[in-house]
Task: structure prediction
Amino acid sequence: MQYLPVLMISASISIFLSVLLFLFLSICGFILFKFGWLYIKAVTSDAHMSLLQMISMTLRKVDVRSIVEYRIMAKKAGIDIVPSSLEAHSLAGGNINHVVRSLIAAQKAGIRLGFDLACALDLAGRDVFDAVKICINPKVIDCPDPAKGCTTLDTITKDGIQLKVKARITIRTDIERLVGGVTEETIVARVGEGIITIVGSLETYKKVIESPDLISRLVMEKRLDSDTAFQILSINIVNITVGDNINAKLQADQAETDKRIAQADAEKRRGMAIAREQEMKVLTEENIAKILAAEAEVPKAIAQAFREGNLGVMDYYHLKNIQADTEMKASSALKSGIPPPI
Result:
């Protein structure tokens, strides 16, 4: 009986140890089941990753399978990327697929591209794999961009002829200037501005029609790809259309404007003449009124002369004869169309 507690303690410990052993074996089985195939795949591909690394990545919610596969892909291409670097880029929100594929493509094409630079470009929002593809296979873009709603560059030569130009630009990515370099939109804007400036400086549109390559050569000499993420390989003028004669239109519009100004001036002078005519009519009526008023004073003056003895009867009849003679002459003048004297 004295050994009974010892036996009971030993039995409980054995059960506890059995449970611990069962849990340990279960955890080991789960780990082997979940990571065993990935571990074997990594080891056989010479891209070793420990089980502890896989477990820690899982705890940090990292896709272990993608890390293993992309590390194997890089290793087979001759690029050794440590798992921690891939994990860090994944945790930062980067696209491991684009980074690894861009590194492999750059190495095969002999382009210098480091893992850190590729990660920086990817985190900055650049499609690093597309950038490497454009570096290997140059890209052709339209100038102007039809997606912006404009299909031609409208410019005018010095002789006033409008030309509608359409160009195509061949560009290649410059990996070293990809960080901080401007995008394709700036390239299109600069080339468009260069074409408009050069065409506008030419004396006649015929020179543009005869030598379209002159525009391409002069634009290329301006080095418009500086401070950009691309290198301009060529600028080709694909279409030139002769538009309106802007100089003639401007002259016609100016002539029409001058005509309207002259008409307005003539109308102003006409209005002033009509106003002056009305003023003269009023002045004439005033003068006639003054004459009538003066004529009304004549009988009074004659009567006063009679009273004072300054006018005789014979003088009065002589005056009446003169008035009758004047009225007869005035009547004759009216019949012949001559205005009477005032």
In short: The two ends are 172 Å apart (CA to CA). Residues 215 and 283 are 75 Å apart (CA to CA). The chain has a mean pLDDT of 79.
